[in-house]
Amino acid sequence: MHQSVEVLYKKVDECPIVNSQFSFFQMVYVISGNGLLHINGNAISYQAGNLMLLTPNDYHNFDIINTTEFLLVKINSEYVKEYKSKSIDHIGCLLHYATHLSGCILKRKADEFLVKSISDSLIHAIENKDIYDEDLITHYVNALIVIAARNIAKIKPTGVKESADKRILEIINYIQAHIFCPQKLKASAVAKEFDISDTYLGSYFKNHSGETIQSFISNYKIRLIEHRLRFSDMRINEIVEEFGFSDESHLNKFFKKHKDISLTGYRKSNVSQN
């Protein structure tokens, strides 16, 4: 992929490629039709109105049941890495979280109308070439990125039940918002924030999420650090400072405990695969 952003309209009866893998992000909006998306060994149904996100190194192909119209928005990793937002921190990491998700990423009903409108506008732009097309298309794509990011941010961790009460989601949101502030992640600080006792916080969180609060914090932190190592040029000492570790040795010990490999070893092995 030579361009930072590329938008394509496709109407197909069958997928021209099988088990493909790209080095870029791809948002796939289904204008019409239905079928199955096979991704990383899973089969997920799709239909008109779905917005799906394929991340770098996902293996995927489409099994088209009824003739399908796709709007494909391809975004290279460098563009995502350099994307600037006033309110969304490290959008690349957020988008990579979609690897753990399945199917349509739209969780906000109101965003379905927005995505359809942006899709219609993008198709109009690529079919009716005019001055400043590139700038216009970039603005539309950026809007899709923000919509994707805010929907992904609202998706609950796999252990949280659909019937879970509002407070567990608020606690999870608090943890994710303060993941770079170790002092605010202490059980006493979280308990104080939500006006519950330290001991009750532990049992409450495990009962509603399926894991301990410390396990959730560590796993979330590890996932973010993995993405820094794989998809950014951040130096180890910069990651140390960002996450509030005392030094590189402390961070390396924490990472190796969870991933059984050093920070530099992980980065080298993943650079060679990408």
UniProtKB/TrEMBL annotation:
Pfam families with a match to the protein in the record: AraC_binding, HTH_18
Coiled-coil intervals: none
Protein keywords: DNA-binding, Transcription, Transcription regulation
Cited InterPro entries: AraC-bd, Homeodomain-like_sf, HTH-like, HTH_AraC, RmlC-like_jellyroll
Domain HTH araC/xylS-type, residue spans: 169-269
Record GO terms (molecular function): DNA-binding transcription factor activity; sequence-specific DNA binding
Ubl conjugation is among the record's keywords: no
Keyword rRNA-binding attached: no
PANTHER family: ARAC-FAMILY TRANSCRIPTIONAL REGULATOR, HTH-TYPE TRANSCRIPTIONAL REGULATOR EXSA
Protein name: AraC family transcriptional regulator
Annotated organism of origin: Flavobacterium hibernum
